[in-house]
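Go through this pair.

…
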Amino acid sequence: MNRVIRIRRRLRAVAGYVRSAPGTYVWLLILFVTTVALHYMSPAFEREFLRQRSTNIHELSRDPVRVLISSAMWIDGGHWLPYAALYTVFHAQAERWLGTLRWLAVCVAAHVLATLISELTLLNAIREGAAPPRAVDTLDIGVSYALAGVVGVLTYRIAAPWRYLYLAAVLAIVLVPLVTGATFTDFGHFLSVLVGLACYPLVRGRGKAWDPKETLTALRG
């Protein structure tokens, strides 16, 4: 009986957590449905299908609004569970802290600005001969820019000095690929984090920053 009560309490806690971040979990549900749909497509059809919803130069020049929205509803690669974990750790925390509208503003700003700036940079590289002309149709789809923006804005959720350790780790994660590989996607992730950091005005008045030391003290009793 006690075990049943504990299970019910845990289920209520999970349900309460999901309800506290509705935007995050509605988005995650959409990604689950679209990921399942991709598994029923042939590899060739899937590639062409995603390319038409990609924020590459070709599609952006035809219908930018459509592809900016549609590209955020699909995951390239078909692995949903890692995103479920990342959304719970980062997106849900940001939405609970900022509120749905402010969280969504950070997501949209990071996704749109990082996409447009990175694709303009790629277009300039093509014109200068630094990238091949076929790069205008490069597959660029997914939710990583919005996620990186939220990771960036969460810097302000953490109290100093832990904030600076978190920021150093985030910058290392986005800068190492940028320095060693330097793809336009790596550049987009770096830009997304900067956009998230630039969203500081949205975090004002959102309560006391989280102090990991206080949490550890409370857990120790």
User: Anything to note?
Assistant: The mean pLDDT is 91. The longest helix spans residues 100-127. Residues 22-220 form a domain with the Rhomboid-like fold fold (CATH 1.20.1540.10).
